[in-house]
Amino acid sequence: MNLRFSGKVAIVTGGGNGIGRATAELFLAEGASVLVADLSEDGETLCANWRERGLDALFRRVDVAQANQVAEMVQAALDKWQRLDIMVANAGIGGVGRADEMATADWQRVLDVNLSSVFFCTKYAVPAMRENGGGAIVNTASVMGLVAPRSAVSYAASKGGVVNLTRATAIDHAGEGIRINAVCPGHLEAPTGRGGALARSRDDRDLIARYPMGRLGRPEEVAKAIAFLASDDASFITGTCLVVDGGFTAQ
């Protein structure tokens, strides 16, 4: 089996569930050492189970909205493995409401978690990757960063910000061998209710009817797109936003 990430070190934020969990598991299966960052302590149990299977996983509880905690997260990876090759800035929360109805604190929290955290991940990952001679950053945006939903102004603004933050930072660091891309997932099946901010029941027929493929996505489908962008298979791809949405935004 070709292990695309053998000898590589990755950080996955929001790695305890949904897209992040699927991504971390895929990286581990393909040879990477992975630091899983999440607010939930469930991530520790998850990483312990992976370690029992012989996989090199480390858990760290991180509030990605706090710059100092993101910096410490990166340092923890460096302390354990002495390098950082891949950063997946995936952690995020939902946000509903119109601008005239939303509390300022609610607006700010969504921007802090969904957008500022991606900036922090880039800020602290880039110097570490520069020491290696390069690396790959993949940010989780959303189809709602490309098309506007109703009554989700903070979420749409934050994910639209991730799209252009990705493009701007990709240009800044392309000459250093650091590729920066994003994925834009559509709505995902989330039977457990923890699949991500756009997760919905697989029985949501009105929503499913809006998808040309006739179904919602699955976290592992987004994880495969993230892994592609993080791998050498995407060696000439930077500054792009890969839409993983079953045709939703093609309409």
Q: What attributes characterize this protein structure?
A:
251 residues, Rossmann fold, two-stranded parallel ribbon, seven-stranded parallel beta sheet, 7 helices, 17% strand, alpha/beta
Describe it for me?
By secondary structure, the chain is of the alpha/beta class. It has 7 helices and 9 strands. It has a 7-stranded parallel β-sheet, sandwiched between helices. The chain has a two-stranded parallel ribbon with strand order 7-8. Helix 3 (67-81) runs parallel beside helix 4 (104-132) and helix 4 (104-132) runs parallel beside helix 5 (153-173).
For the record, the count of structural domains works out to 1
Task: Give the integer mean of the pLDDT values.
Answer: 94
Tell me the number of strands.
9
CATH superfamily heading: NAD(P)-binding Rossmann-like Domain
Distance between the termini: 38 Å
Strand order of the largest sheet: 3-2-1-4-5-6-9
Secondary structure blueprint with pairings:
Layout: E1 9-13, H1 18-29, E2 33-38, H2 42-52, E3 57-61, H3 67-81, E4 86-89, H4 104-132, E5 135-140, H5 153-173, E6 178-185, E7 188-189, E8 199-200, H6 205-208, H7 219-230, E9 241-244
Parallel strand pairs: 1-2, 1-4, 2-3, 4-5, 5-6, 6-9, 7-8
